[in-house]
């Protein structure tokens, strides 16, 4: 029999298997639905079996740099909660605060689902890939290390930020892609924080490591779109880039262990030392290192890049920031975290950047048992929705943060002033107030590095504005409506064309 016949039989087998499963689940859920007055949400119709047209549509939008806008327009068309079939899996999409609250506050009902299998080759075993007791243990282990007392004096950031200012000083008058440099800045800060010493990538870059991180993240993002069929995406390139990342982590761990052996007193009391004491086996140690390294590098770099992306396109915001910073009674070397948190307009600007361009634009959870979502079902989209065990729910912070019901009719516009009086949420619904803004997640798995990241970003911005009297948009750079710029979505959200500026 030819390969084509085998493939056709396999596809038919998969289709029948899926149909039988759907039917059985449907029958089992009917009684539960009736009892709880549950009704299904609107459906995104698929034209091809198993919803492969939806997968292709998402992949096409991703390659064209408009995945987030594609999802946003689907939410606008179908409502804040809808269902779709994605690679054979019935999936719920939601940006409804009440549903998000129900999901994110119940880790015993909602787990990370396929995230573990999809990301394991890159991340290994660590806080992002764990559920249940293992995750609780990691969170308890890591949380104390994020106390702001560890970086109140900003020492952990200083060497890297000085390095950035030095690199930029040498490029005065030229077009510079800040995004590229911010990924090095945050790598240097995170390695200093984690390992007690920076890899100093701003001084001498490690292109192989940087490329490996980018490749593996892109592949991980594609695997997410295929859900249970994630294993279709991967291959030798993925393996090789994961190996480069693991080798990097292994080298750092080995160096630390050698130093501790030579002189136990000089080993220090940094993040890695604490992890070494806790993790009995090498793979577990490496997993935690890669997990926190990825979290620390990428999301903060994206925040900084999107901040300058907006600042050079909104010179009046840049000027207001400069005015606020000029009031500081401390130079760069005397700055402390307490100075930064008093800069209200800077804090508002960071909030606005994370509203429109949340570093982590998409999230998922999978039900560990039959569950109910409070709203989104039926013709008026207000009835509860019944969720079968094993169903994946995806949510889009990007689309949530652009809902006019929550932020008003100018929700799509970059306007830091909306945060000046505290909350920018115009809706009076308490659930909207609580869950309408969640760039750092919400509930039990809320980001542990939130304050660390905001302090890092604020310090880098203040330092750059103090050091350079002019940071401008290059003449031939595009200025488009916010959201029309090309976006690259991997695990994080970056600007596809970078963040080009001229430093003066
Ligand atoms: C602008 C910067 C950042 C953003 C927007 C951000 C966003 C997020 C989000 C949305 C989550 C929740 C993921 C989920 O629901 O599963 C998360 C979790 C996490 N973040 Fe961040 N993050 C940032 C910076 C950082 C930094 C700098 C670190 C560490 C150095 C960090 C460490 C973590 C950790 C350890 C978790 C896992 C929490 C858990 O699963 O219990 N983050 N972050």
UniProtKB/TrEMBL annotation:
This is Cytochrome P450 monooxygenase. Keywords: Heme, Iron, Metal-binding, Monooxygenase, Oxidoreductase. GO terms for molecular function: heme binding; iron ion binding; monooxygenase activity; oxidoreductase activity, acting on paired donors, with incorporation or reduction of molecular oxygen. The keyword Cytoplasm does not apply. Belongs to the cytochrome P450 family. Its cofactor is heme. It holds the Pfam family p450. Heme binds at residue 447. Gene3D superfamilies: Cytochrome P450 (1.10.630.10).
